[in-house]
Amino acid sequence: MIASTILPRAFESNPRGILFINLAVLLFSAMDVLIKLATETYPVNQIVFFRSAVAFIPLIFFIHRAGGLEVLPTRRLGAHLWRSVLGLIAMACFFVSFDLLPLGEAVALGQAGPIFLTALSVPLLGEHVGIRRWSAVVVGFIGVLVMTRPGSGVFDPAALFALGGAAFYALAMISIRSLAATERPATIVFYYTLTATVLGAASLPFGWRTPDLLGFALLFAIGLLGGVAQMALTQAFRLAAVSVVAPFEYGGVVFAVVAGYFIWGDFPDFHIVLGVCIVVSSGLYILHRETILARARNKDRGDRG
């Protein structure tokens, strides 16, 4: 949902947007599989570094299309740094969860991001959230509890990494909402990628395993897939309405479950399936309500104009 928070609502083609969102989901899902494979050999900080550094390859093309070097100057460097640190922590948490949990379960728990985003937008952005969206948030957290089953004796503490990733993702999205008032999408993505690369490089002395040729190809592919997927996601939200393309993002859960079964022999139990259905339903309802409210705000502004 990154691009949906920062792109102008000048849509061109819903079918093309759907094509790009499905491409983004496919690429991100493939990246998640490679990350889980990489965590079997390489430390998370090393994977974070390659994920960020290699992403500069497609990012250069994105920046060129957005206007070249003129998009890079900013007067809000501190805000960019804050957003980047939050996003980097979210990334690291998700990567650790991929290592410790079955892939489908980790991705499913990560779908709690929109729920955290709605809840945190009240104290941090001063947004008004009505009873319907609050109800969706409560239902979503019930879905999380169904998946994690705390106190049942089967709770896996590793689930806290996936939920922590979702929470920091929500904080990063809130900071993006603030930045988007003055900054271009390419500017935000550039400073995030730069910060993640620099901080990832700084962490390498604390965890590094020299990759062989196959390992280097694996790490390089993670960064390239992630970078291209981000560009596809951005394009999807530029071409089509959020309400049209955002639901397709949940297809990543299905891909992760299928990949987890065929590669690692993992298959989610009943509680995971039920919980993810609840969480996804909650997220879709929150998206539905935000779409209705956005239309109402736009109509109000049009009437005043």
Ordered list of secondary-structure elements with their pairings:
Blueprint: H1 14-39, H2 44-53, H3 56-66, H4 77-100, H5 103-110, H6 113-125, H7 131-148, H8 159-179, H9 185-203, H10 213-239, H11 242-245, H12 251-264, H13 270-304
What's the total count of β strands?
A: 0
Whole-number total of structural domains:
1
Question: What's the N-to-C terminus distance?
Answer: 30 Å
The helix/strand series, from N terminus to C terminus, equals HHHHHHHHHHHHH
The number of helical segments is: 13
Structural class: mainly alpha
Strand content: under 5%
Q: Give the helix level as a range of percent.
A: over 70%
Gyration radius from CA atoms, angstroms? 19 Å
Q: What form results from the Cα inertia axes?
A: globular
Low-confidence stretches at least 5 residues in length (pLDDT < 50)? 1-11
- Please outline the major beta sheet: none
The pLDDT mean sits at 86
Write up this protein:
With 305 residues, the chain is mainly alpha-helical. The chain has one domain. It is 75% helix and 0% strand. The chain contains 13 helices and no strands. The protein has helices at 14-39, 44-53, 56-66, 77-100, 103-110, 113-125, 131-148, 159-179, 185-203, 213-239, 242-245, 251-264, 270-304.
